């Protein structure tokens, strides 16, 4: 088969990882889970840094690992590109020399490697950093150079290990947007490890949820987040995500527009999502007027008590939405399943993100 296929079991005294999945060429698979779930162990097995007790890893029909047949292709022969939390650039080399290192390591001549490095620095909007050394780069700049280095060697498989986790709140959205642009042009399979549901929404076509070493859910990102079967998935999917098409000030959704602040670079007409928390939503019986707010007509599906608030669930055009309101508000509005109401959220509370091919919906 084409793409990546893995079926592994890795055991140690207090932990066992069992995972079976496939990633098609050009597809991005996000592995979502809390700390200690086994995400980094999984990547280490794919990269050849750990050997499982039992398992097979194949790429495009070629066996990288088969414990029964005693096949174990070493890391340097697998053609894996890795982007980790920290850039891990060589401190004594310039950005250009760091990016050229990958092609040089697989036998590309110095001049050609330099041209490849220049091309990839341009691809990640870092061509102006070519002469700088890592100590002269910000965290976001260093990650751009590290991404260019990972791609310049033309990897057969790209592994992203929490690539945004070490970035500050200003650098992370820009890097996430850059990854969205770069990954959708890739023809190789990509595995992304993350604990942030937004990374999966923006970057991944499919989603695997890993908990205590076991896959508890997997499928199209949209389907998994829209109908979570596990409590962890339901908790991390606790955002409203409305899919649409990017406009000048938000997204086009159905016959209307949802306004918000654009967090990552977007072109008008590109697939995008409006993201906002249930706590930012107010519920009205009538459509409000006269203020810069988004008003979305919703048919109520359920009311769920959650401590001091009630989560009011509804849907519009097959998109599930949620609002957290007080019990007093529920009583005052006399809310019940089947009612048609308005979910209202201020534009300032709405973040507009690019949308992956398989992403999106609700808490």
From TrEMBL:
GO MF terms held by the record: ATP binding; ATP hydrolysis activity
Record's protein name: Molybdate transport system ATP-binding protein
Any single GO BP term: molybdate ion transport
Keyword field contains Aminoacyl-tRNA synthetase: no
Domain Mop: 289-354
Keyword Membrane in annotation: yes
PROSITE patterns in alphabetical order: ABC_TRANSPORTER_1 (PS00211), ABC_TRANSPORTER_2 (PS50893), MOP (PS51866)
Highest taxon of source: Bacteria
Residue ranges of domain ABC transporter in the record: 1-237
Family annotation (InterPro entries): AAA+_ATPase, ABC_SmlMolc_Importer, ABC_transporter-like_ATP-bd, ABC_transporter-like_CS, Mo/tungstate-bd_C_term_dom, Mop_domain, P-loop_NTPase, Transp-assoc_OB_typ1
Organism the protein comes from: Saccharopolyspora phatthalungensis
Pfam families assigned: ABC_tran (PF00005), TOBE (PF03459)
